[in-house]
């Protein structure tokens, strides 16, 4: 995030000091929310590197528009909305171009197997060894709209109105997605518990 601080310094060249004050306020108010944004980005992207890229893009966009942010309103909701828009934009761009895998990251075994799952990140490998990995997988199995509604409501503790603003959908749609997401998650987790019970 030192790039962001460098960008803040470049924007602070205004002689009257307003840009410097804005950059200082941004760093003071927004930077402490980076871990929260990273958690949301992980739920959206499912990959640590992609999540970090999404957070960086969110921070750049937030800094560019910070002058328009109205103090006293919901900063976290504003940032989540920027993040959701950045994710949607990035997703659309990725859908328009074929997936690329650097050839030097593919080993002989992976070429023989042809297994796309063999190219998982180290973070995903570690997550799967944790006791909560099955829960994370169940949450990640939900459709993105349902997963994000559940994440914002149950992990971040946001209100339906805040989620509505972030996702750009009516409150009724948020309620529906949240209900469906929780129902799907319940079924997945029940199957997990039943499966573990059979092994015992």
From TrEMBL:
* Matching SUPFAM superfamilies: Sigma2 domain of RNA polymerase sigma factors, Sigma3 and sigma4 domains of RNA polymerase sigma factors
- Superkingdom to which the source organism belongs: Bacteria
Show where the RNA polymerase sigma-70 region domain sits: 35-94
GO MF annotations in UniProt: DNA binding; sigma factor activity
Q: Which InterPro entries match?
A: RNA_pol_sigma-70-like, RNA_pol_sigma-70_dom, RNA_pol_sigma70_r2, RNA_pol_sigma70_r4_t2, RNA_pol_sigma_r2, RNA_pol_sigma_r3/r4-like, WH-like_DNA-bd_sf
Please cite one Gene Ontology biological process associated with this protein. Answer: DNA-templated transcription initiation
Q: Keyword annotations for this protein?
A: DNA-binding, Sigma factor, Transcription, Transcription regulation
Ranges of residues in domain RNA polymerase sigma factor 70 region 4 type: 134-185
Q: Which family does it belong to?
A: Belongs to the sigma-70 factor family. ECF subfamily.
Q: Which NCBIfam families match?
A: sigma70-ECF (TIGR02937)
Q: What is the protein name given in its UniProt record? A: RNA polymerase sigma-70 factor, TIGR02947 family
Output the lineage of the source organism.
Bacteria, Bacillati, Actinomycetota, Actinomycetes, Mycobacteriales
